[in-house]
Amino acid sequence: MLSAGILGITAPLLKRVYEGGAGAVVTKSIGPKPRPGHPNPTVVALEYGLLNAMGLPNPGADGFSEELRSLKGLAVPVVASIFGERVEDYVEVAGKLSDAGAVAIEINCSCPTVREIGLLGQDPDMIEDVTRAVKRSVDIPVFTKLTPNVADVAEMAEAAKRGGADGVTAVNTLKAMAVDIESCRPVLANTTGGLSGPALKPVALRCVWEIAESVDIPIIGCGGVSDWRDAVEFLLCGASAVQMGTAIMHRGVDIFSSIASGVEAYLRRKGFRSVKEVVGRAHRTA
Amino acid sequence: MWGEHIERLKMRTVPIEKVEQEAEDVKTFVFIDEACLSAKPGQYIMVWAPGVDEIPMSLSIINRGGFSAVTIRKVGEATEALHKKERGDLIGVRGPFGNGFEPVKGRCLLVGGGTGVAALAPLAEELLSRESEICFILGGRSRNLLIFLNRLQTLLSGRGELLVTTDDGSYGLQCLASEGTKRIMEEKPFDVVYTCGPEPMMLEVFKKAERHGIPVQASLERLFKCAVGLCGSCAIGEFRVCVDGPIFNSKQLRSIAEEFGKTRLDASGRRIKVDK
Fold first, then answer.
1. Of A105, A119, A162, A221, which one has the greatest count of Cβ atoms within 10 A?
2. How far apart are CA A101 and CA B226, in angstroms?
3. Distinct helix (H) and strand (E) counts, chain A
4. Together in a domain, B127 and B167
5. Per CATH, which fold does A11-36+55-173+198-285 belong to?
6. Which A residues, 32 through 51, put their C-beta within 8 Å of a C-beta on chain B?
7. In this complex, do A45 and B54 lie within 8 Å of one another by their Cβ atoms?
8. Catalytic-residue membership of A109
9. Do A40 and A189 touch, CB atoms closer than 8 A?
10. Do residue B75 and residue B56 come from a single domain?
11. Residues B174 and B245 in one domain
């Protein structure tokens, strides 16, 4: 799957990524109103990852609904990523995007680039409330995306489960920053941002592992997947599906088909009959 | 895989080596940067005014004795901050990014309007080194807003044709650059048209080239944030201008006819009209 925040701002780009081999595509996070996001610099490329502080730019639920409707009839499975500052915002946006044809909702309550949103995902009661409110308001599956910026990620997954989530996406980016030594100032206009890419992968794997150990809920793994081996690692730790985004920077939108065929070849070589036999397998040997 | 091109993607903070006034509101900022030395004409860099903003700029000089440069018109907050900078002040650079122009050996028509000339000047140098024939149309609103007139006169003297157009007739032909394009296409055959400038101008140039069956390479501009093909803020059709472009060929331009010269995304991703 294409992860949230990457390219999913227009219908033609969502379609292109789907045709590039993604099983489903997640939109950029959509809020109730248009939002320009933070000024540049909004990204910093690092040795083993990427920092971003986009600041949730989006055309708003009404504007984006039109964009989604233009995909009607093309059978592109679109998961709508949503955010808001209050529970009512999430409910409003989920309803509009569900009506516009989204096949599932992913609740972004954990974006580290915007303070109000990032904090929500660190409070299990808030996660439970927002998940329950969204789940009650739509008829499509609801996933809650969790942040690694907490002491106990499994506790957050448990809260999402209590709220009725059909699954959790683990994880969002890790709060981070970069400083320029020549101009002696932070590089990101927002000072702090979220770390993604290979540097995030070991942290994300650990989060998926901890959730799978203690909560019975489907997990979508996300964080630093760059090739099929990374995808298999997430499956082994307990993820039933994986998302990727940052790797497109180096490998383009064709990465999705190469990961899918790589995982298939792995299954054949190891004699597994389906992905299900791999999901969580590492827990049995640990 | 990861880390292969990482030096090019990272921000480098470099001192400005030289500032040149090109026109009333246009300056060229010369700097030294390893990765920019091997840039292709038409590629761009992200230029950071520390503490203010970061904006995309075509390279206007590529490896002239180890120096590179961007040429910037003062139009907003970021460009104003850059215009205040002097020799020794710091700017950040990322890149070069994007696909760049494909050099064609043959009869080349280059049509540049306003600061769009910045991307075409290094291309003209490259084409001459490949022994292509060049006709360069340099357009501007008036004489004091033309940039690179001397540079192009020197470059093309005895080796190519230079046609200058100004909207007010204060220099060269009094007409739009696209009108000059129409006239020259009726006079002579060309194998390719390269264009960079205001989008309505490029749309006109494209239409005229289509009528004559001449392939076009046009340098488009959209709002760039990440510049590495991830954020989608520069979407046009199914393309990301930052990495799939900024140079688009005729086939691609036909496929984005609904948006080219008509609409673009604003910072929030809403569709708005392209500036006239």
1. A221
2. 28
3. 11, 13
4. yes
5. TIM Barrel (3.20.20)
6. 34-37, 39-48, 50
7. no
8. no
9. yes
10. yes
11. yes
At A31 the pLDDT is 97
Q: A37 contacts in B (CB within 8 Å)?
A: 225, 267-268
Of B1, B9, B238, the CB nearest to A45: B9
Cβ neighbours of residue B78 closer than 8 Å, sequence gap 6 or more: B49, B52, B53, B54, B55
Does B247 have pLDDT greater than 80?
Answer: yes
Interface with B, mutate which of A16, A19, A30, A40 (most B CBs under 10 A): A40
Tell me which residues of chain A, numbers 168 to 197, contact chain B at a CB-CB cutoff of 8 Å: 180-183, 185, 187, 189, 197
Q: Does the beta-carbon distance from B230 to A245 stay under 8 Å?
A: yes
Chain B residue with Cα closest to A16: B238
Residue B164 has pLDDT above 60, yes or no: yes
Beta bridge partners of B138: B112, B164
What is the residue range of B37's domain? Answer: 6-97
Show pLDDT as tens, one digit a residue, over chain A (286 residues).
Answer: 999 999 999 999 999 999 999 999 999 999 999 999 999 999 999 989 999 999 999 999 999 999 999 998 889 999 999 999 999 999 999 999 999 999 999 999 887 777 777 678 899 999 999 999 999 999 999 999 999 999 999 999 999 999 999 999 999 999 999 999 999 999 999 999 999 999 999 999 999 999 999 999 999 999 999 999 999 999 999 999 999 999 999 999 999 999 999 999 999 999 999 999 999 999 997 7
Mind giving me the DSSP string for B60-121?
EEEEETTEEEEEEE--SHHHHHHHT--TT-EEEEEEEES------SSEEEEEEEGGGHHHHH
Residues A31 and A61: their CA atoms lie apart, in Å, by 6
Q: Do B50 and B167 belong to one domain?
A: no
Taking only the tens place, the pLDDT of each residue in B37-58 is 999 999 999 999 999 999 999 9
Please report, for the domain that includes residue B198, its CATH number.
3.40.50.80
Pair (B87, B192) in one structural domain: no
* B227 part of a folded domain: yes
Q: Give me the number of domains chain B comprises.
A: 2
B68, B97, B126 - which closes a domain: B97
Q: Determine whether A120 is exposed, middle or buried from the number of CB atoms within 10 Å of its CB (0-12, 13-18, 19+).
A: buried
Task: Assess: ipTM above 0.90.
Answer: yes
**Pair B179, B248 in one domain:** yes
What pLDDT was estimated at residue B275? 82
Residue B28 counted as domain residue: yes
DSSP assignment letter at A147: P
Same domain, residue pair B83 and B119: no
Q: What is the CATH number of the domain that holds B38?
A: 2.40.30.10
